[in-house]
Model the fold of this input.
Amino acid sequence: MPAATLERSPGIIDQLPEGTFRVPFRIHRLQPKDISAYVRIMRAGIASLPFADSGQLEKRTEQYYRERINKEEWALLVARDERGAIAGVLEGEIAPNRFSASIQWIVTDPLKRKKGVAHDLYTHYETILREMGVQYMLATVDDANEASLNFHQKYGFFMKEPYKRLSNTSSLYYKDISGA
Ligand SMILES: CC(C)(COP(=O)(O)OP(=O)(O)OC[C@H]1O[C@@H](n2cnc3c(N)ncnc32)[C@H](O)[C@@H]1OP(=O)(O)O)[C@@H](O)C(=O)NCCC(=O)NCCS
Done:
């Protein structure tokens, strides 16, 4: 499709900084039929990080997500590519008072990285959160996770000073989404 046609399709395209265009990934809430694929991608992503603690991996079973799939405080999102294959997954948790919401984990299929999957998952999650009146998005990022640090910085996250050092190896980052 010529770029001129795409340009007239608001909501269908994203403009990248370089001035090129791409079709966004399709994002939807986790459906029961996708739980095993969701868990496989999530667990493979966590297991690939040398600094992720084993408890994070062990608790993310199919049962863990089955218990959360219909709960309002959990946002379990799936990104699909143009062929319908799952390209990435996001697990978000909304605080009971709806003041803030965290990204517990986000994982992009290793073959589909740096194509905007995480960006589209975050954008969709942010839209859900804004509609709920949530003011801050929170993410814990390991200091050694260069891809995640760069991604969060690019997406507009800042280090949250009082919680700058959550542990010896990670920090809390936030994005204020209370404005326009
Ligand atoms: C972090 C992660 C989710 C990013 O997903 P993604 O779909 O590749 O990210 P996007 O394409 O939307 O964003 C791309 C931006 O993120 C940053 N980024 C992504 N991968 C990067 C890498 N390997 N090195 C440096 N920066 C990287 C860059 O700023 C990049 O922008 P650019 O393409 O213009 O350079 C992905 O690398 C991943 O699944 N990692 C393993 C799991 C993980 O670490 N999750 C985060 C836990 S907090």
